Amino acid sequence: MSTSGTRLVRHEPREDAVAGADALAAALEDADARRGEIVADTSFLRIEQPIRSGEPLAWLRAFAGIPRVYWSDRTGEFEFAGIGTAASSEGKDLTGLDDLRARVMQGEAGDRFRLVGTARFDLDREPDPEWASFNRARFVLPLVEMRREGNELMLAVNMRVAEGMQSGWYDVQRRTARKALVQGAAPLQEPPTVTPQGEDDDPARWRARIGTLLERIEDGSLAKAVLARRMSKVMVLDPVDVLEHLRAEQPHAYHLLVQPAIGEAFVAASPERLYRRDGTRLETEALAGTRARTQDEAKDAALAEELAASAKDAAEHALVRDHVVDVLTPLAAEVDANDTPAVRTLATLLHLHTPVIASLLEEVSDGQLLQALHPTPAVCGVPTERARAFLRDVEPFDRGLYAGPIGCFGKDEAEVAVALRCAT
Questions:
Q1: Among 48, 79, 224, 264, the one annotated catalytic
Q2: 224 is catalytic
């Protein structure tokens, strides 16, 4: 078996997560793994342990004292939970994704790795202190992961090898992963008290911002901008508890968790896809134009008819759809989008929805797609940069990861959500 590039070691299935963790811990204690002799020329080592039963989100609960990530798609078919960091890319833009993927996703293990990435809504704005730990754009290969694809479950350890041998980092990763698998992690310490930001929700300030926006639309400098409001409450909770509640309440959403440090976490249950890519096939969508549901079937049907017939909502939706088509056109051989949206029903809302399908050019990367598609007019406005600058000026808080992209990236596939319905 070749030892260049990346190396994959796969074990026989074990019954559950406990037995799988014990098997992985034993593999990490193996003399060859400890010395690193069999992988001395390998850039990354991946050890996989299939298991027959387990829950990725429940498994994540045991590791509150280690940086954690969780990502699940809105079909419920794919879950990814990770702890620690085997490799990462952090920076002021989105190009780090392509650089990290080039380092990691090669050789025999290349198509088995998954990266989880986040970016701020406004990459040009200096983060406020509360968002500093999340960085501007960050892409991570977790040290230890549990993954579910359909009915298949996998525990795995990812380690940086050749570079880590020189610095001693390989043994640090090995010991950290083994300790976490055997003992779990220290419980989450109580986060510092957060002072509610009452001015963020002041009605007079909110109306003033709306007035300023309407003036910009009337004078023609903006066609649309999407203002946000923030509510602050003090709660001491494990974010896994919050996410489990969100999964029960909103089963058809993307469910997302990023916890870069103890006491700091971002959770979301978002209905909105930024894009899904499988090779050169890209699926995205326009989601704009909204009504709140009443949970009365007859009333909701009437609201859906009203939404479908609304000229105002159709115009708002067209701004989003046309923007998506325009930015994809230089990156694709073909882009297809319906002229007339359908009404999509969610747990509490009705939206106008148009799927957009593109056949990408072979050389197009996910870094380029993120740069082109984020932010959409549905969360920012039109023209994009003018709207984002306007929001930067008038909103009295830093959006941070809110309305930014958060995704899971493989070698030849990716899926990215827009981080909505969220909390930190």
A1: 224
A2: yes
